[in-house]
Structures are given as structure tokens and as C-alpha cells.
Amino acid sequence: MLVGKELLDKARSLSDRPEDEIAKGCGYVGPSGRVLRKSFYHALVEAKGYKLRSNGPGRAGNRSSRGRQAEFRTKVHGNGNLLIGHAYTKKLGLEPGQEFRIDVRKESGAISLLPLKK
What we know:
Blueprint: H1 4-13, H2 19-25, H3 37-47, H4 60-63, H5 86-91, E1 100-105, E2 110-115
Antiparallel strand pairs: 1-2
Helix pairs in contact: 1-3
């Protein structure tokens, strides 16, 4: 991700393009390919010489060097799906395509993923 004068120069050179393309061209893209707009705009403002004051632990200013932090919490979505995010699969070293058996223990409410042998 570009910062400072390099960011301003690159953003200026891409100024005839849509905002998302400018952000991508400056390297503000997450691991999933999502454009990191807030980080991009924050970096642009700072590159212009303005120092942004953080309002506390939940603000991007405090977290930007760490990125998103895994909370080891999730919830059932409206469609009934339960998502286990990238942070957790990465922590376990899981690879795309790896298969698991889901073990449900109704009495305790526990769900386990058991790797299937290839």
C-alpha cells in the first residue's frame, strides 16, 4: 500500500479512473480482493498533511498496522449459515479444497470439524 508522496502521485496519475480502480492501483486491496476504501481515504488525507486523531480502540487509526483482528466469535446468519472466517482457517493452516466431517453434539451445542483423509 502506497503512502505519502508516492500515494498522491499514483492517485493523481489514475485520477481519470473510478475510485475503486484508483484505490486498487495504489495497493489498497484486502486478501479477498475487497477494496479497502476507508484505509485508502485515510492514507490520502494523511498524505495531504492532515493528522487524523483516533477516537479509541475501534477506529482504523489504531488498528491499521494490525489489520482486522479475529475475535473468535461468530453468529448464525439470516439464511441459517454459520461462517468461519479466513483468520481462523489461516491460523489452523487449512487449505482451499480441504474437506471435513462436521460432528454435532446436540446435548452440549458443540460443533467440531474433523479432517477427512485424502
